[in-house]
Amino acid sequence: FGEVTPRLTVIGTGYLGATHAICMAVQGYEVLGVDVDQSKIDRLTAGEVPFFEPGLPELLTKALTSGRLRFTTSFAEAAEFGDVHFICVGTPQMAGSHAANVSYVFDATRELARHLNRRALVVGKSTVPVGTAADLAELIATTAPAGSEIELAWNPEFLREGFAVEDTMNPDRLVFGVASAWAEEQLRASFAPMIEQGSPVVVTDRMTAELVKVAANSFLATKISYINAMAEVCETIGADVQDLATALAYDSRIGGKFLKPGLGFGGGCLPKDIRAFAHRAGELGVGQAVAFLHEVDAINQRRRTRAVDLVRELVGGDLTGKRVAALGAAFKPNSDDIRDAPALDVASTLHRAGAQVCVFDPAALDNARRAHPELEYGESLLETLRGADAVILLTEWSEFQEIAPEVMGSVVAHRRIVDGRHALDPMAWRAAGWEYRALGRP
Ligand code: UGA
Question: What SS3 class is residue 416?
């Protein structure tokens, strides 16, 4: 680590914070995880990751065993312990608005700053509206005890759910938004193993660092909606968006990543981030520059409506009383996250249209049950499929892709399937006597 190895605190032990704390301890840092939620702290201390993320439980055990990772609810303890404090609390969409709710970021920073009476770097990692860092720096200046030298830096996080460990240990890039050379030095020391292993570092000001995050997520969302807009065109003229995407992807300037057509994006990040960005840009007087993000959102929502229409068409025009097996609830595979999940949105729209919907998901069933008690849930894939008038694949879990058309065909009432994620081979399913429909394909 060079000469000084900073001690790290991670404030907020949700998805982002818990992953960051665990990975940093595994990398060799002394880490203290902080949260106001005692039950989260208890579970993590007992070695239990409170959400689904491949590989993370094993790393938590490793980190706890090493003695380098502890958890607390005490901000005073955190202030005493840490040299570098990462703020990792959530910024959900505000109820009744497109704006991001930054109150948890302000609460956590205020609570920490009150106790900081030695030199420290506070690092924002949460996704925030541009300009938040400036307000937080001001808050720290007015809250920290006189004489303490506290600085604020911005270091956005780009991890994907399902690949959180890989993305944290081996990031595509590190962005350091700093106001001084000292802050940059602290950040370099805090990410020494990643830098040594070749992750590029972009050093910039705090505002640009805040912007990188929302600009990246907006670009990714736009890429998905672009191909889904092409799917709409394909539907109208009878062309095939899957072949179109394959051909586009061979152009290395376009590339195939995030060009997968289907039900579109969901989750706790992309939908909320594009809305919050458009809202913030409006406040800043540059709403016009990102007005296209409203269209990106609208295209994404229309895919969900189209998927419902495809099921309706398959069952003969009226969903009333029809049994529909809905495969998937999570917003993407290898996750139990149902925030803004296209899958559950489609399932509940089918339910409201009169269908008898039975949902199955390998990891997200408990979360789905809590959020949508009106839906039926199957205990297994085959039980969910039994007697179905139509099947819709909503989340491309591998177990849904691996089941043979014949096996599925033997339990359903009618061999009709909508492939909402282009996850199945149409030839194989049609050959097995299925009526197969997909978004943007003839
Ligand atoms: C996203 C970004 O990819 C991360 O870089 C970022 O750090 C994170 O948000 C965040 O802001 O915290 P995540 O929400 O975990 O990560 O999920 P993605 O893998 O990006 O998928 C988002 C959605 O897009 C999913 O619903 C997925 O099914 C959909 N998607 C993705 C498509 O419909 N087509 C594609 O080609 C790719």
Answer: strand
Q: Is the CB of 439 under 6 A from ligand 1?
A: no
CA-wise closest residue to 365 among 398, 328, 416: 328
Q: What is the pLDDT of residues 327-361, one digit of tens each?
A: 999 999 999 999 999 999 999 999 999 999 999 99
* 88 noted as active-site residue: no
CA distances to 10, 140, 146, 386, 438 from 108, rounded to whole Å, are 11, 11, 19, 49, 46
Q: Alpha-carbon distance 375 to 359, whole Å?
A: 7
Residue type, 7: R
Question: Does residue 51's CB lie within 6 angstroms of at least one atom of ligand 1?
Answer: no
Percentage, residues of the chain above pLDDT 90: 97
Amino acid (one-letter) located at 276: A
Taking residue 55's Cβ as centre, other Cβ atoms within 10 Å add up to 16
Domain total in the chain:
2
Q: Residues, the chain, total?
A: 442
Mutation test residue for ligand 1: of 218, 219, 220, 303, the one with most atoms within 8 Å of CB: 220
User: Is 136 within the bounds of a domain?
Assistant: yes
ipTM: 0.97
The residue from 180, 204, 228 where one domain ends is: 204
Rounded alpha-carbon distances, angstroms, from residue 95 to 92, 102, 339: 9, 12, 14
* 197: containing domain: 8-204
CATH of the domain at 186: 3.40.50.720
Which amino acid residue places its CA nearest to atom 11 of ligand 1?
269
Enter the pTM of the model: 0.95
Q: How far apart are CA 117 and CA 137, in angstroms?
A: 16
Burial of 357 (0-12, 13-18, 19+ CB in 10 A): buried
